[in-house]
Specification:
Blueprint lengths: L4 H4 L18 H10 L1 H12 L9 E3 L16 E5 L3 E8 L6 H13 L14 E7 L12 E7 L6 E12 L8 H5 L2 H9 L3 H8 L3 H14 L2 H69 L1
Parallel strand pairs: 3-4, 4-6
Antiparallel strand pairs: 1-2, 2-3, 5-6
Length: about 290
């Protein structure tokens, strides 16, 4: 990758100021940083899983990306194995998605299908989809900073299994984080994701060598011309796809509303006709009654 000499020679991670153009909320940036910094990835996974670094014997990204050959449509979720006995899928969701629920279940099911044909079912690894988002993905859900969803019995809430589930970290709900969330460093990580300036990020990274490493990687890509082109292309692609999705949904909604409006008009006309007929019948019945009384 080519360096932007005029800026990168004048600035370093420690001296950079102002806005961070591509933050950890850029999914390609997030993927690249996490696959390059095992310490940072370990820290994030420990926060999401409630573990300590000593609990992590091995952590392997199974779908690493190569920025030099990455396309704008590259899938950006991170798939990894933890201690060789658990599958994790970390997904950044930075756009609203009406179909997030079925899509997330599909992702989870695909990741849970982690044995070969004919293999013993005992070899299936526990699997969790970990979603990090600043969007409201579940319209009717109560606000929650870190939600965990599992298969349970609807009557007695008995847990069917804890080896298959979806966790959602809601970045805009740090104010209702629990003490456990704070202790596990989830609030700290949420603030890292939300940091949009070098000043914010450096304050959070101070005395955290693993996060200082993240800062250096973010700085590297923000001041590398080729990497920035890739990141910008990927961002525009995501925005375009989201815009097309929104436009398509809106067009369909407007068309649907027009059909409903026509139906309502037709029903109103029919109701008016029925009312007129009922009035006419009532009038005839009244006249008939008068005639019989003569």
């Amino acid at each position: 990758m080519s360096k932007s000499k005029d800026k990168s020679q004048q600035l370093t991670y420690e001296t950079a100021t102002g806005e961070i153009e591509f933050t950890l909320m850029s999914d390609m940036m997030f993927h690249y940083v996490m696959q390059k910094s095992e310490r940072a990835l370990t820290g994030l996974v420990c926060a999401l899983k409630g573990l300590t670094p000593n609990d992590v014997k091995s952590i392997i990204v199974t779908n690493p990306i190569d920025l030099n050959s990455a396309g704008k449509e590259t899938i950006m979720d991170i798939k990894l194995t933890l201690n060789n006995n658990e599958v994790l899928n970390i997904e950044l969701q930075v756009y609203s998605d009406k179909y997030w629920v079925p899509r997330s279940i599909l992702y989870l099911c695909r990741a849970y299908d982690n044995i070969g044909s004919g293999d013993n079912y005992s070899l299936i690894k526990p699997t969790t989809l970990l979603c990090i988002t600043d969007q409201k993905l579940l319209a009717n859900a109560e606000p929650e900073f870190y939600a965990k969803y599992r298969l349970t019995n609807l009557k007695n809430h008995h847990l069917y299994t804890d080896k298959f589930g979806i966790n959602v970290l809601q970045l805009d709900q740090t104010d209702i984080a629990t003490q456990e969330d704070i202790t596990n460093n989830l609030v700290y990580w949420a603030n890292l994701f939300k940091a949009t300036t070098w000043e914010e990020f450096k304050t959070l990274a101070k005395n955290h060598p693993d996060i200082e490493e993240v800062g250096n990687l973010i700085f590297e890509l923000n001041y590398d011309n080729q990497a920035k082109e890739i990141l910008e292309g990927q961002r525009r692609y995501r925005e375009q796809m989201n815009s097309q999705y929104t436009a398509g949904y809106t067009d369909a909604e407007e068309k649907y509303e027009a059909v409903l409006a026509e139906r309502d008009i037709a029903l109103a006309e029919k109701d008016a006709s029925i009312a007129e007929q009922a009035a006419a019948i009532a009038k005839l019945q009244e006249e008939l009654k008068k005639y019989k009384n003569k």
